[in-house]
Design goal:
alpha+beta, Peroxisomal Thiolase, Chain A, domain 1, 10-stranded mixed β-sheet, 18 strands, about 35% helix, globular, hydroxymethylglutaryl-CoA synthase activity, HMG_CoA_synt_C_dom, HMG_CoA_synth_N, acyltransferase
Length: about 400
């Protein structure tokens, strides 16, 4: 029987971050409100040289070899940090990765975009089992200085290679979806920062989870006992925990302890990177897979995706034999460890520095960015990207 799923995953986050205890002290807030109440320790801060295109490329680099590059015929970018109202960021990514003749497009639906891409890739590879798909979730979360949402900012990208007979995890075909026109989070074209009704959005998130979970149980006859772990979209790490706690009474005490332990493992990367919108669920999944010592082949993992506005989907995956060989825990640990901590002054300056919007020429300072692929300058309304490493072979 042909199976479709995720063969490999890649991660990227910018080279600079802000410590949230420092942010709390600067804003006159008890640090425990951020580190315990919100569940965040650090947040990645993107320099001008990184955007949804460059971060997506940098996340995908490790997934490509000669065979993969030749067989990828679908490339989907999920993002709500798009760089153009018309041209898809996926087309820049395709060129920078040296891919040829792939269907390449961009999906927008808040934080659900990468999941929409993953489901599209599942269907595509099912119809074309000799081909592969590359799905990327890449975003910069911005809420503005000294706003309630400031602590839930972040930046990064996750890339997923979808194939037949995947070596990492098989996606099961049963999924449940709930969607409705909800005004919990949005960003009008005229605004660089998002608007959010935080408490209301959390309520919708939990309600949508409960609906998709109930539908899943009813349509599959599975119970919470069938799951080794549950992963959630994580705009901040306490949000998923609030949803998980609503169904924990369905499990035995021992199962509850295991699910809570796996949940904490899934939050370790998010605590250091912050909110990456479309990639947040998959950042949590990668954290679980690379940090847990309790997973084994055959384990079922549940995944809850939520995009404000709002749409949610609950779906599942089964870990494959020797799935550990598809992971890169040490590389990702090094990526996080080598980042540079910003001072408050540096953070605020970097946050407020913007690219020109009048078409004028602009050169970007690359001294703080050692990334393989960067945005180098603006020229006549065009973004100029460069590959600074031989890791990418056009």
């Amino acid at each position: 029987m042909m199976q479709i799923g995720i063969d490999k995953m890649g991660l990227f986050t910018p080279n600079t971050y802000l410590d949230l205890v420092m942010l709390a002290n600067a804003r006159g807030v008890d640090p425990d409100k951020f580190t315990i109440g919100i569940g965040q320790d650090q947040m990645a801060i993107a320099p001008l040289s990184q955007d949804s295109v460059t971060m997506g490329v940098n996340a995908a680099l490790d997934l490509l070899d000669g065979e993969n590059r030749d067989n990828i015929s679908l490339l989907v970018l999920g993002t709500e940090s798009g760089i153009d109202q018309s041209k898809a960021g996926a087309l820049y990514i395709q060129r920078l990765l040296g891919l040829q003749n792939a269907r390449a497009f961009e999906i927008k639906e808040a934080c659900y975009g990468a999941t929409a891409g993953l489901m599209t890739a599942y269907d595509y590879v099912t119809a074309h089992p000799d081909q592969k798909a590359l799905v990327i979730g890449s975003d910069i979360a911005r809420y503005g200085l000294e706003t309630p949402g400031e602590v839930t900012q972040g930046a990064g990208a996750v890339a997923m290679l979808v194939s037949a007979q995947p070596r990492l995890m098989v996606l099961e075909p049963q999924t449940t979806v709930h969607s409705a026109d909800v005004q919990d989070f949005w960003r009008p074209n005229y605004s660089k920062e998002a608007f959010a009704r935080g408490k209301y959005s959390t309520e919708q998130y939990i309600d949508f989870f409960q609906k998709t979970w109930a539908d899943y149980r009813n349509t599959t006859d599975r119970t919470i006992a069938d799951f080794k772990a549950l992963c959630f979209h994580l705009p901040y790490t306490k949000m998923g925990l609030k949803a998980l706690r609503t169904i924990l009474p369905e499990a035995t005490e021992a199962q509850q302890a295991d699910l809570l332990a796996r949940y904490q493992e899934s939050t370790l990367y998010s605590r250091q990177i912050g909110n990456i919108y479309t990639g947040s669920l998959y950042l949590g999944l990668m954290s679980l897979l690379e940090q847990s010592q309790q997973l084994q082949a055959g384990d079922r993992i549940g995944l809850f995706s939520y995009g404000s506005g709002a749409i949610s989907e609950f779906f599942t995956a089964i870990l494959q034999p020797n799935f550990e060989t598809q992971l890169a825990a040490q590389k990702h640990a090094d990526l996080l460890a080598k980042r540079q901590q910003l001072t408050m002054a540096e953070y605020e300056t970097q946050f407020q520095t913007e690219l020109p919007e009048d078409g004028s020429a602009f050169e970007i300072d690359l001294t703080v960015d050692p990334s393989p692929v960067v945005l180098t300058r603006m020229k006549e309304h065009e973004r100029i990207y460069e590959v600074l490493t031989q890791a990418v072979k056009p």
